[in-house]
Design goal:
heterodimer, A: alpha/beta, Pyruvate Kinase, Chain: A, domain 1, 8 strands, 64% helix, elongated, B: alpha+beta, ATP Synthase, domain 1, 5-stranded antiparallel sheet, 2 helices, membrane (chain A), cell membrane (chain A)
Chain lengths: 298, 134
């Protein structure tokens, strides 16, 4: 049985933990609002880029002149994975779920005899993945989220690296893993193929039906030239989008994790206080019994 | 009332504009083109330059874009710009500093990739200054 002094100090320490977690929750909530706005503002660009590329890809089709970023290298031996995680922990299952998905993919690819290369964005992912796939990590980025949120230049740095690797023929397929922001309490691990470009054909058809946009487009300059210009840019845009989604998800996950922690701490304080009061009462009763029985003995 | 087409100007970080306009003049890679309502479908890349928005028979707004793509169909004109700023918000000395910084970066660039990037920055800054002086 813990002594009264022990209980008192435990209550004090849980109280200070609660203070910290509730402060973190507040911070996460205010950051969440900003990054959620940023993520939602960036969606139209990525979506329109996607539809436009889908249309162009359909126009160029499987012709010989199609850029490699669209048609692929013709092999799929080497896979590059770009894994987006947070720089910091204490955000519930956020990092763990991404890492778990990435690990499962790595295992599946390795079982098929493919080579895997990894680019880690965010410190936590790199730390978790280096344990069993340390030699596969070829680049890591951290501290992407500055004071003013995420800048496009951070995404370009990653995109430039990916494109450089592709130009050097160091991978055939590139996939990105990130948490897509749904709401403050829900984030979905998303796997998206970046290279070769995987168009959302269905979406494109829907739009074509709805707006009669299936008309034949004129291209200026040629389809191939536009594609050659657009595809590398799309890589940057998709990476930027993933960064924003991931950041909004991180803050959302942290907010709900800290909310839970704060509530747990509150419950624990209640339980400890009851225990403290009971043992204090027991001690008083004990003392009384001693005094009374002492008096009776006289 | 005159016919209007919808102009959508989108940058990577936000949807900047989505409004009806009478005409837009877009700086295409192969020359400027004007977009009026019911324009034939067209996809074109954009060079650094100025988009002129016409409303009420005159230029109502001028916006500088640093490149991108434009998609035109009979109902709308969608412009995906890498960077877009209203001409009214640009200061001449800032543009000049930017050009000098870009030139310095071009001189310092080592790899062909860096070189190409810096060259583009120089082009953008130069176009920005031209846009201001006109």
């Amino acid at each position: 049985m813990a002594s009264l002094k022990d209980l008192r100090s435990r209550i004090a320490s849980v109280k200070s933990t609660r203070k910290i977690t509730s402060a973190m929750k507040m911070v996460a909530a205010s950051k969440l609002r900003r990054s959620q706005d940023a993520a939602e503002a960036a969606r139209p660009y990525a979506e329109r880029m996607g539809t436009m590329l889908g249309r162009l890809a359909a126009a160029v089709g499987g012709s010989q002149g199609a850029p490699k970023l669209l048609s692929g290298t013709g092999r799929e031996d080497t896979h590059l994975m770009v894994v987006f995680t947070a720089d910091r922990g204490l955000c519930g299952g956020f990092n763990a779920s991404i890492v778990k998905a990435a690990r499962a993919k790595i295992r599946a690819l390795k079982a098929d005899g493919k080579t895997v290369k990894i680019i880690c964005v965010g410190r936590k992912g790199a730390d978790a993945l280096k344990r069993d796939n340390g030699d596969a990590i070829i680049a890591r980025y951290s501290g992407i989220e500055g004071k003013k949120g995420i800048d496009f230049s951070e995404a370009s740095a990653v995109a430039d690296k990916v494109l450089e690797l592709f130009d050097n023929g160091e991978f055939d397929v590139c996939t990105i893993f990130y948490n897509k922001f749904v709401s403050a309490i829900s984030q979905v691990v998303t796997e998206q193929q970046l290279v070769p470009f995987a168009g959302e054909a269905q979406e494109d058809n829907q739009e074509a039906d709805g707006k009669g946009a299936s008309a034949i487009y004129e291209y200026e300059p040629s389809e191939e030239a536009i594609l050659a210009d657009l595809l590398p840019r799309n890589v940057g845009v998709q990476i930027f989008g993933a960064m924003l989604e991931s950041s909004a998800s991180e803050h959302g996950a942290r907010m709900s994790a800290m909310d839970n922690a704060t509530r747990n701490a509150g419950d624990m304080i209640d339980r400890l206080s009851i225990q403290y009061n009971r043992s204090r009462q027991a001690q008083i009763t004990n003392e009384l019994i001693e005094i009374i029985s002492g008096a009776e003995a006289l | 009332m005159t016919d209007t087409t919808v102009l959508e100007l989108v940058s990577p970080s936000a949807l900047l504009k989505s409004e009806p306009v009478e005409m837009v003049v877009v700086p295409g890679t192969e020359g400027n083109f004007g977009v009026l309502p019911k324009h034939a479908p067209l996809i074109s890349t954009i060079r650094p330059g100025v988009i002129d928005i016409y409303m009420g028979g005159k230029v109502s707004e001028r916006i500088f874009v640093a490149g991108g793509v434009a998609e035109v169909n009979p109902e709308r004109c969608t412009i995906l710009a890498e960077e877009a700023v209203s001409i009214a918000d640009i200061k001449a000395d800032e543009a000049q500093t930017r050009l000098e910084a870009a030139k310095a970066a071009f001189e310092a660039a080592k790899t062909p990739h860096e070189k190409a990037n810096a060259e583009r920055d120089v082009e953008i800054a130069a176009a920005l200054i031209t846009a201001l002086t006109n």
